[in-house]
Amino acid sequence: MKCIHIGLLCVQNRAVDRPTMAEVDFMLISETDLPSPKEPPYSFPALSDKSEFPPLRCSNNNVTLTSVEGR
After folding, report:
1. pTM
2. What pLDDT band is residue 6 in, cutting at 50, 70 and 90?
3. Average of per-residue pLDDT across 37-42
């Protein structure tokens, strides 16, 4: 769980929010409390039974556009 938590910190959207390798090393060897990762910049909306249209499942991070579609 600790490695997953640190991994989430390492993939923050903004580079200034990510820990340095020295900080990662310190987090791995220490028993201190870890900072909370910020909410991801994109996520899938919750599916609702009341929606009239099928949900659009895609993410846009201003670098690439990914659409999830069946084959």
Report:
1. 0.55
2. very high
3. 74
**Phi, psi (rounded to 5 degrees) for 25:** -60, -45
The DSSP result for 9-60, as a single string, is HHT-SSGGGSPPHHHHHHHHH--SPPPPPPPPS--PPPP-TT-SSPPP-EEE
Contacts of 18 (CB under 8 A, 6+ apart): 9, 10, 11, 12
- The residues, ordered by sequence, that sit 6+ positions from 27 with a Cβ below 8 Å of its Cβ are 2, 6, 9, 19, 34
Rounded to whole angstroms, the Cα distance separating 36 from 64 reads: 26
Residue 17's nearest CA partner among 29, 4, 35, 43 is 35
9-31 average pLDDT score: 92
